Amino acid sequence: MPHRAKLRVVVAGGHGKIALTLTRTLANRGHDVVGIVRNPEHVADVEALGGTAVVLDLEHTDVEAVAQVLEGADAAVFAAGAGPGSTAERKYTVDRDASILLAAAAERAGVRRFVQISTTRAGAPAAQGSTPVWVAYLDAKTQAEEALKATGLDWTIVRAGALTDGPSTGRVTLAGRHVPRGSVPRADVAMVLAELVVSGAAVRRTLELTSGLVPVATAVAATGT
């Protein structure tokens, strides 16, 4: 992704807690943010934070429609998820299939930079005795990661630890190797995503993220380009 002073960033799952904070963070830094939302009632929330919103249900659309939203963008961020209380089936239709759809649309639209939120537990099977929904969630996230890695995009996968709604600390542990399991505020995840998008760092790398001691910008810069 060429360095530009002002970027256009499309965020799937635009009404999620991480996505809304990301929208505010990028907008405050002077960038254009487009949030893809499913519910028309969520448009105002995205706009209130400085972004614009496009109403599009990623479970019921096609590559061409998503590619039209991505036209002219510099980066795409997949921050969508079926969310708590959803069925095993929706883990696949949202956490896996919608991610694959967004990546395919990015390739169609010529948007090379793609940042994806995943989970630290992806890449390995669920522990014995896990609920069917949890098994499906991890499997869906793992398949989404593998599909993204198979593309020609300049992807970065962020495997976030257990998410909390606590205030941002601005300090994280971020590394390509396994880090001890821990939690991380959604606000700090958003800060990391913003820094990855703007800096273009960590291309074709999978990163583990938890709370830590290193300032976000320093942590991202240390991942390389």
Automatic annotation (TrEMBL):
Pfam families: NAD_binding_10. This is SDR family oxidoreductase. The lineage of its organism: Bacteria, Bacillati, Actinomycetota, Actinomycetes, Micrococcales. CDD domains: SDR_a5 (cd05243). Residues 13-197 form the NAD(P)-binding domain. InterPro entries: NAD(P)-bd_dom, NAD(P)-bd_dom_sf.
